[in-house]
Task: structure prediction
Amino acid sequence: MPFLKGIYHSYSSDNEMIIKMNDTYDRYFFTM
Result:
């Protein structure tokens, strides 16, 4: 099912981006 696979892939990459942003925010606030 390539359609479902595409949805899952874009969803997981979005999640990775959110996690990376959260990680960056954590570091930013830790150093303040």
In short: The CA atoms of residues 8 and 24 lie 24 Å apart. The radius of gyration is 14 Å. The mean pLDDT is 71.
